[in-house]
């Protein structure tokens, strides 16, 4: 039988306290009630997620390219980003979480538009209760303007390089996706002003949890942006939803997991679907993930692409300025509530 949830001993837990320190407390053998999020964190194993070899995207065979680009979640290999850089960004992110709390508290979010934010976060569940998440995070806007926490010192250089390299992978992928959608070469790049594409770096730290089925790292959600890139320290935890079922993702070492996000669903008028995913926790090992959310230029208005609307007879989503969508989403803390649902145009609207 699962041990009972501990009584509210930690009722004075500050809103934005870090989970790392709590998890390291030697007396913790159950999940404090503020974190209680009963869930079945087991996911099925999926062999059906094909691995995308980035070099194949240069293939002359359009069918080959279309096949790989039709999938929602793609572990990308041969992407050209050196393994040493992937390792360096994970290591520098880990060093950030190991800083004294006072250094991290400097970035406690005061408003959704703060370019650097750090904390652990909470959501309001369906029963209107605040639930703390079993993860610490740091997020910073890295493009078109570059922001980065001051410490650890090495983060700045590594993050700037990671941002530059991921941008070129992004533009190549989107060029092929555009072609796959039947759009003219350069159409996505021009319309969404990808020279100034928005990039948000996020690192997540999930310490071991004494009762993994009684807490959640990040509940089910979709990401803002066009494509999200994700790497991790080799500890499993990311699950994606497909046909209502949860699947574990197990991407090969040094691959980058690419997920379709909300703005590609909007832009493609629903041809690509934003991937619903969540991060579950485990009792054994600390997990770190590094995410680069890649979107349109902050001031670009994202709407379904005109040629696709013509084919479909109507747009299925309302237009919205990219950065407004992001900031609405970053301030929306209702569990399970999606921004995308709010701007979907229903059949009888
Ligand atoms: O840590 C993970 O695997 C998921 C992270 C995530 O979904 C996010 O930061 O939006
Ligand atoms: Fe996400």
Outline the structure in words.
It comes from Sesamum angolense. Keywords: Dioxygenase, Iron, Metal-binding, Oxidoreductase. InterPro entries: DIOX_N, IPNS-like_FE2OG_OXY, IPNS-like_sf, Oxoglu/Fe-dep_dioxygenase_dom, Plant_2OG-oxidoreductases. Residues 193-298 form the Fe2OG dioxygenase domain. Belongs to the iron/ascorbate-dependent oxidoreductase family. The chain is an alpha+beta fold. The protein has a single domain (66-107, 116-343), classed as Jelly Rolls (Sandwich). It contains 10 helices and 17 strands. It has helices spanning 19-24, 62-69, 83-97, 101-105, 155-180, 187-191, 262-267, 306-312, 322-331, 339-343; strands at residues 44-45, 52-53, 73-77, 116-119, 122-124, 130-132, 136-143, 199-206, 218-221, 227-232, 238-242, 245-248, 256-260, 277-279, 287-294, 301-302, 320-321. The protein has an 8-stranded mixed β-sheet with strand order 2-3-13-10-15-8-7-4. A hairpin with a 2-residue loop joins strand 11 (238-242) and strand 12. The longest helix has 26 residues, at 155-180. It is globular. The N and C termini lie far apart (50 Å). The site of 2-oxoglutaric acid (AKG) has 11 residues, from strand 8, strand 14 and strand 15. The site of 2-oxoglutaric acid has 11 residues, from strand 8, strand 14 and strand 15.
